């Protein structure tokens, strides 16, 4: 499928946002330590994706019940995506989940940040823990490391196109993750 000549609308997903694709859409985003989580229903041919940049709302403000930007946090973003997918008629047991991002070393420095600042790894772990808590497990992942990623998500097929970016944001590797068997 050529994305450049496609009549399918394209949307850029900003940090802290989510997109629920009830109509076919190509959603793109760029990730560093942030994570993108996608959920796709093969039966309904509809998908959703979020771009979260902090592990948990409770770490930042444990007393606050409602966040203005719910998808800025991995834990609440996953809950939000699942609720939206269920609302449009999907079943939890049919969802295909994929996780991307969570890079840890995007600086040129060889100095490592203390563990409490390793946001990329904490984002990945929170995604895995939050998904497991609701009985979901990722079908595919491309996480960690020290390179950024650009992804394109087709909401109507669940396909993901991934570009790994080096420190100069040059293309290192491209792969296409498809749901076709």
From TrEMBL:
CDD domains: CheD. It catalyses: L-glutaminyl-[protein] + H2O = L-glutamyl-[protein] + NH4(+). The keyword Hydrolase applies. The chain crosses the membrane at residues 20-40. Keywords: Chemotaxis, Hydrolase, Membrane, Transmembrane, Transmembrane helix. One of its GO terms (molecular function) is protein-glutamine glutaminase activity. Its EC number is 3.5.1.44. One of its GO terms (biological process) is chemotaxis. It is an enzyme of class 3 (hydrolase). It holds the Pfam family CheD. SUPFAM superfamilies: CNF1/YfiH-like putative cysteine hydrolases. Probably deamidates glutamine residues to glutamate on methyl-accepting chemotaxis receptors (MCPs), playing an important role in chemotaxis. HAMAP family: CheD (MF_01440). Belongs to the CheD family. This is Probable chemoreceptor glutamine deamidase CheD. It comes from Maridesulfovibrio ferrireducens.
């Amino acid at each position: 499928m050529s994305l450049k000549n496609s009549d399918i609308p394209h949307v850029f997903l900003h940090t802290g946002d989510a997109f629920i694709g009830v109509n076919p859409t190509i959603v793109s985003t760029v990730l560093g330590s942030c994570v993108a989580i996608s959920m796709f229903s093969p039966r309904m041919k509809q998908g959703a994706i979020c771009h979260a940049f902090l592990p948990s709302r409770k770490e930042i403000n444990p007393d606050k019940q409602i966040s203005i930007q719910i998808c800025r946090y991995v834990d609440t973003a996953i809950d939000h995506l699942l609720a939206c997918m269920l609302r449009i008629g999907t079943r939890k047991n049919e969802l295909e989940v994929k996780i991307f991002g969570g890079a840890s070393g995007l600086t040129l420095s060889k100095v490592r940040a203390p563990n409490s600042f390793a946001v990329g790894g904490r984002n990945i772990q929170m995604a895995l823990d939050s998904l497991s808590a609701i009985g979901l497990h990722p079908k595919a992942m491309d996480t960690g490391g020290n390179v950024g990623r650009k992804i394109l998500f087709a909401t109507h097929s669940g396909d993901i196109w991934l570009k790994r970016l080096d420190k100069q944001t040059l293309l290192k590797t491209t792969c296409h993750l498809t749901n076709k068997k």
